[in-house]
Design a protein that fits this description.
- This protein has about 625 residues and is of the alpha+beta class.
- The chain is built from 27 helices and 16 strands.
Length: about 625
């Protein structure tokens, strides 16, 4: 069902867009707004802007934009109704009972059912931990000194050593076998036999960033029979994607925002032990190789990362892989080294939180760690090996997105390895070579990405009209159109002035998108005169590209920083009438230029087939009008 407009507006106005976006993105104050890394693309420099006065967000890199409802839909993959419902719950606004519609896809329904099944399974596992059959798992957690509050926050539990406990329990609650399959709670053999995936194991609930249980990690607490692995995880599913989830992020994200850095470990026990010891900004890659998606997720909350993996050879290799990705993602990476055969869990329990804090304070920069590791492995012992090691270091420097750091990092290499000026020049040349190659690859990748993104909607368009709209969505508005539309939707009474006094018509615009947006603005008048932005962004008739354009126009208005108030300087307000008049005149001028060019072409190619006197009269009139407009604009043509 579609909620009444007045209720949608009440929900939107009652929702704090800074709080909603801030739950997903680490925001910093900038002028009168806030900025942060965009969650909708691989953003390395803050391009997401949030304007609390307008209640809008806009990424000026990928183009995503809108209001608080739009953000909920895009970020959490919700329908319009689901986004309104979620915000209404946060603001305690009562909505009419929702009736399920055909628009709600089967996939989304199955995913929501699977999430509910996972929540119910977690509650059963927690109860079983306190039952007699869970005594051994309880001793396992107690041995690691996990307190009751920690176990509750992370929903630690126990899966009984039986074949069909969870299946029977959840079927009684009304969950189907399909839902249990979708949740990854069952294993189905080829002969049709079905049994519980997790049996006789200590259970670690894995929450997504929003706090929903997306899956489980399970540890065997006895000697693994028949070669079973020590740990197993939920399978890849609609709720659990191991490459996009960091264990403990939901519990850690507020502390990460507060501290400005995160501690990254490998396993569940490592993360829990550090949380128990007071390091509540710890997350884990859940025993899998660190991924770009996980780093992109973490980058919403901080830009400094301490990597703490095991002190053995495997841990060192994992550290190198992780730091390469983290450096490339723009993190200030520090490496915490532990004694051989120690992991964060064992080291902290054995030596205490203060000892671990000392290791944090003495953490190595990524370059120091790389140099030290290469030196320990004999990477500088012979000329060929030394040359290869230098190339490795130069490659790491080149991966640092901030090129302003490159000189300092190269000098660090030269100083640490006592390079001569000649060797230093050689590695600078090597760096330049790597930079050029990296830039070439990035340009190729971006071009392919743009072509792929542009081709998708065109391939899906069925008729010529849809193709025209898809093409128009990829074309930017002219500066003049942007100015007129921006004023129309952000300046009080400007829309009324343009419609009633200026009689602005869609054909005055220069692009198809400009015409469509002006039609939408005219349609919004006068019902939404007081809030055209909100009306337009909630309009079902607006394409996604047009909605992004509207948000961008509203956010484009320049506002002076609050810091100017510290100085005795008067900031002149924008001359709205002059900006609007100039933009309208310039659009008219461009139309005239187009007509003149068209007539000149006709004169050149069809001079014997047209009325030259009438044509020259038209040219004279257009030229005179062009001169008047140019004079009004203060230009000389």
């Amino acid at each position: 069902m579609r909620y009444p407009e007045h209720l949608v507006e009440q929900v939107r106005h009652s929702s704090d867009i800074v709080e909603i976006v801030g739950d997903a993105v680490r925001l910093k104050k900038q002028g009168r707004g806030l900025v942060g890394l965009c969650p909708f693309h691989d953003d390395r420099h803050p391009s997401m802007h949030v304007n609390p006065e307008l209640g809008l967000f806009k990424c000026f890199s990928c183009g995503k934009g809108g209001n608080v409802i739009t953000f909920m839909m895009e970020f959490h993959r919700l329908t319009f109704q689901e986004a309104v419902q979620s915000l209404a719950r946060r603001t305690h606004i009562v909505l009419p009972d929702e009736v399920e519609t055909e628009m709600q896809s089967e996939t989304r329904n199955r995913r929501e059912s699977a999430l509910r099944a996972l929540e119910a399974a977690a509650k059963l596992y927690v109860r079983c931990l306190s039952a007699p059959e869970g005594a051994e798992a309880a001793r396992y957690f107690a041995k690691r000194e996990f307190g009751a509050k920690l176990m509750e926050d992370f929903a630690l539990g126990y899966a009984p050593d039986a074949w069909n406990i969870i299946g029977e329990h959840l079927r009684k609650q009304g969950f189907s076998d399909q839902t249990l399959d979708d949740a990854g709670l069952l294993v189905r053999r080829e002969n049709g036999k079905v049994y519980d995936r997790f049996r006789g194991r200590a259970m670690f609930a894995i929450h997504d960033a929003a706090g929903r249980i997306a899956g489980f990690g399970a540890r065997i607490i006895q000697n693994a029979p028949d070669g079973q692995p020590k740990y197993i995880n939920s399978p890849q599913s609609a709720t659990y994607d191991k490459s996009r989830i960091l264990y403990g992020l939901f519990q850690a994200k507020q502390q990460i925002r507060s501290d400005g850095y995160a501690i990254l470990v490998e396993g569940y026990a490592d993360a829990l032990t550090l949380h128990q010891a007071g390091f509540r900004n710890t997350v884990a890659s859940s025993g899998t190789a660190l991924t770009k998606e996980q780093l992109q997720l973490l980058g919403r909350y901080c830009k400094q990362l301490f990597i703490v993996y095991d002190g053995d050879a495997a841990g060192a290799k994992a550290t190198v892989r992780g730091l390469e990705l983290a450096v490339e993602a723009g993190f200030d990476v520090r490496i915490v080294r532990l004694p051989i055969n120690e992991d964060p869990d064992s080291f902290t329990r054995r030596s205490g939180g203060d000892a671990f804090r000392g290791r944090l304070h003495s953490a190595l920069t990524f370059l120091d760690f790389m140099i030290e590791s290469l030196r320990e492995s004999g990477g500088f012992d012979t000329p060929p090996v030394r040359a290869e090691s230098l190339r490795t270091l130069v490659g790491m420097v080149a991966k640092t997105p901030d090129s302003l750091q490159h000189d300092a990092l190269m000098l660090k290499i030269a100083d640490s390895l006592h390079l001569s000026s000649r060797e230093l020049h050689k590695i600078y040349d090597e760096l330049s070579k790597v930079r050029r190659e990296t830039a070439r690859r990035n340009e190729t990748h971006e071009l392919q990405s743009v072509q792929s993104t542009a081709a998708a909607p065109l391939a899906e368009a069925i008729n010529a009209n849809e193709i025209t709209v898809a093409k128009a969505d990829m074309l930017p508005l002219s500066n003049e159109e942007s100015a007129v539309l921006r004023i129309a939707i952000t300046v009080p009474k400007a829309l009324r002035y343009l419609i009633e006094k200026v009689d602005l018509q869609p054909q005055a615009m220069l692009t198809e998108r400009g015409k469509r947006l002006l039609v939408a603005c005219i349609s919004a008048f006068p019902n939404a005169e007081d809030d055209p932005i909100g009306w337009l962004l909630n309009s079902a008739n607006l394409t996604a590209g047009d909605a992004d354009a509207i948000a961008g126009l509203a956010m484009k208005r320049e506002t002076p920083s609050d810091k100017w108030g510290d100085f005795d300087v008067e900031i002149a307000p924008e001359d709205v009438r002059r900006v609007m008049t100039d933009a309208l005149l310039k659009m008219r001028l461009q139309k005239l230029e187009g007509k003149l060019a068209e007539i000149k072409q006709q004169l050149r190619t069809h001079s014997t087939e047209i009325d030259e006197i009438a044509t020259l009269t038209t040219v004279k009139q257009l030229t005179e009008e062009r001169s008047r407009i140019a004079q009004s604009l203060g230009s000389v043509i």
